[in-house]
Design a protein that fits this description.
419 residues, mainly alpha, 3-stranded mixed β-sheet, globular, Chondroitin_lyas, Alginate lyase family protein
Length: 419
């Protein structure tokens, strides 16, 4: 087994944006309409503390990484009935080249990924193969056509028999991107399809345990979307492996990273920081938040970088909480205010509202991607929170496809899914 990366600190921390690879009044209320009060920083931040936690269930629920069996049954029923938006979402997924039955996996022993995947030795291939395995796993369950299950198995077996490591500066993030999709695919196939030989299952489990989890489980102190995606992958892998210790570790990191990624006025004058990140002083915090010094409910640490990377972080927050929910842990109750404000805040500007001059100097780089469906379903549908901007954007984006990194077909899996 590879050694755990204890004390890992990314070289990307506080680096110029070109080098990064993934790299208000407390009494105000905002219900996703964009009515937010402002607060300009003037004092030190309230720092979150990472406390030990016991969060893992006594018995893990399978399949239970992002999607559960009741959710999959709901989707299959809707697609079979030709109901929308699920039928269109299914057709779009089945037509995706990632699900082509002639597609050949491209495994490598060493996947090397530099900043912005440059160099790119197997990075795109790995991410796309992992997404292809997940898409085929979904297609198997929805259609009950064993060709899709066997294709997912062929892809997973190809990689588990070869890969040994991820290297270069983007290695932790690459491991998270691919690992998140691998865990989802493996959960569905292992627990709903009876023809994945035990030898293949065990070899794939060893791959996740020895090659992926050590790169992920101690997190990263780079931009927040890195660590959030890494924790999404770590918690999914922990469920597949039924590894209670790593599950608890992932939850512990998640609980301090989310408040350090999304600001609420209740945090104080400055955003919270993650212990050990090296972001402590007023100047460091403002620089880490892309030189933004006015903080409002729902602002993200990467809002002023661009909405695309912010979307990665918001997606992994939603996906992590969804996996935990399937395992009996209600993280949505803990993060619902941060997440609803963040979704509504970014949806408003993604829909075209002009930013004020205090926000990112009046300039935003939009392009949040197909990343809102899981969070909106959790908060807007299951919890009944009014989220008009988020709902409008989600419905405009349907049927959501993939971001070709780690997000895939979430209209299909989570649109109005009550389970």
């Amino acid at each position: 087994m590879l050694p755990f990366l204890r004390g890992f600190r990314s070289l990307c921390t506080l680096a110029p944006l070109a080098l990064l690879a993934g790299c208000s009044d407390a009494s105000s209320f905002e219900n996703d309409t964009g009515i937010i009060s402002q607060k300009t920083e003037s004092a030190g931040s309230t720092e979150a503390t990472e406390a030990p936690t016991t969060a893992a269930p006594a018995v893990f629920t399978h399949p239970g990484v992002l999607v559960s069996r009741p959710q999959l049954d709901f989707v299959r029923g809707k697609v079979s009935a030709g109901a929308q938006p699920w039928a269109n979402a299914s057709s779009k997924m089945l037509a995706d080249p990632l699900l082509s039955q002639s597609r050949a996996p491209k495994p490598r022993a060493i996947v090397e990924c530099g900043p912005y995947s440059n160099p790119n030795y197997g990075c795109t291939d790995e991410r796309q193969d992992a997404l292809a395995a997940y898409g085929n796993a979904l297609a198997w369950y929805i259609t009950q056509d064993s060709r899709y299950a066997n294709k997912a198995i062929a892809i997973m077996d190809a990689w588990s028999g070869i890969i040994q490591n991820h290297t270069n500066s983007n290695a932790p993030l690459q491991t998270g991107w691919a690992g998140a999709s691998w865990a989802r695919a493996a959960e569905i196939i292992r627990h709903t399809y009876g023809s994945w030989p035990a030898a293949g299952v065990n070899r794939f489990a060893s791959m996740l345990r020895d090659v992926y989890l050590p790169k992920l489980i101690n997190g990263s102190n780079s931009n927040g979307n890195w660590e959030l995606t890494m924790m999404e992958a770590a918690v999914g892998i922990s469920v597949f492996l039924e590894d209670r210790a790593s599950y608890d570790r992932a939850v512990s990191i998640f609980r301090v990273r989310v408040p350090a990624y999304i600001y609420l006025t209740s945090d104080g004058a400055l955003p919270k920081t993650k212990p050990g990140s090296g972001v402590d002083t007023r100047e460091e915090i403002i620089r880490y938040w892309q030189n933004q010094s006015t903080f409002v409910d729902g602002l993200s640490q990467e809002t002023c970088r661009d909405f695309t990377h912010t979307g990665y972080g918001l997606a992994s927050i939603s996906n992590f909480a969804e996996t935990a929910r399937h395992q009996g842990l209600d993280l949505h109750a803990e993060i619902k205010d941060r997440l609803r404000f963040a979704l509504g805040f970014h949806a408003k500007y993604e829909l075209g509202e002009a930013p004020p001059s205090w926000l990112c100097g009046g300039k935003l780089t939009r392009g949040i991607g197909p990343v809102l469906e899981v969070g909106f379903n959790a908060l807007g549908n299951r919890l009944g929170i009014t989220m008009p901007n988020t709902q409008k954007l989600v419905e405009q984006q349907r049927p959501a496809g993939t971001n070709v990194l780690f997000i895939g077909w979430e209209t299909l899996t989570h649109a109005a899914n009550p389970y």
